[in-house]
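We emphasize that the prediction below concerns an isolated chain of 214 residues; any contacts that depend on oligomerization or on bound cofactors are therefore not represented. The input was used exactly as deposited, without trimming of termini.
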Amino acid sequence: MAPDKTKLFPNENIRTVCYIQNLPPRPNVDIGDYTYYSDNSNPPEHFYDRILHHYDFLGDRLVIGKFCAIAEGVTFIMNGANHRMEGMTTYPFNIFGGGWEKVTPTLDQLPFKGNTVLGNDVWLGQNVTIMPGITVGDGVIVASNSTVTRNIEPYVIVGGNPAKPIKKRFDDETIELLLELKWWDQDEEWLDTHLEQLVSTYDLQILKGLLNKK
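Result of the prediction step, given as a token string:
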């Protein structure tokens, strides 16, 4: 039997880990089933504190897929952190008042990178920073303390500041088949039946067999 995906703490004995889709809804934040946040320093329900400069009037969304693993200290920088950049200075005079608000930029004068999107089955290590408008593909692993400044293709391991590709997790044929399988979209009965195959040492024939059973 699968854990209860509607509970904040699916395992009451491990209250440092929570299913963040069960936090109170937040505008412009979408989180998929079974995605968890782990935090040993703060109650994990403080996940929203890790989404910075996210303002409703900008309209950018944070979209996180299913079965993602998000470690302590991960930070999402949203578009509200951006400053106007075409002038001689990027200093935000307008936010301090005193008459300087006369140079308040319009929305179209601010850099806007769009939505931040994490695919499914993404693993973000401790203290990873995701910059605005980034798309992280399905099955990606991001090493601890990395800063992600560019989009990441599916099933790639990246690390560093800025994060750079280290290697692909699988060959191209396998990645194509995994993206076709979309195991994260299968129902709980399918997952229960094939759980051991999903976590065991990878085998191409097993993967092809799973595709035939979809």
